[in-house]
Amino acid sequence: MPPTGPRESTPAAVFESASDGGIGLLYDIELDATLQFGSKEMLLRDVLDLGPGDVVELDRHIAEPVDLVVGDRIVARGEVVVANGNFALRILEVATPQMRLESIRCLF
Fold this sequence. Notes:
Elements: H1 11-19, E1 33-36, H2 44-48, E2 66-70, E3 73-83, E4 86-94, H3 97-104
Antiparallel strand pairs: 1-2, 2-3, 3-4
């Protein structure tokens, strides 16, 4: 009869859960998340000429959702909101689970 209690956390149990395809090992990994509002290609001389009050126009319309990027993958899209005086992202669309798993496949 299989055990009904919590899984052991011994090294052997950790490797066993990884070989079973258990994604639980990844839950405690910290990743940087970035909001991408848009982009613009600029010459270095133009970047060096930037000063206070200058405006850099991006390639994204204000009505388009912004991207939530983890690593180099877009994992969600949404709209920028203010929460408790800070910028935040209201998620409107999440990448499919298959697309999200493909972005971490290199860790196995």
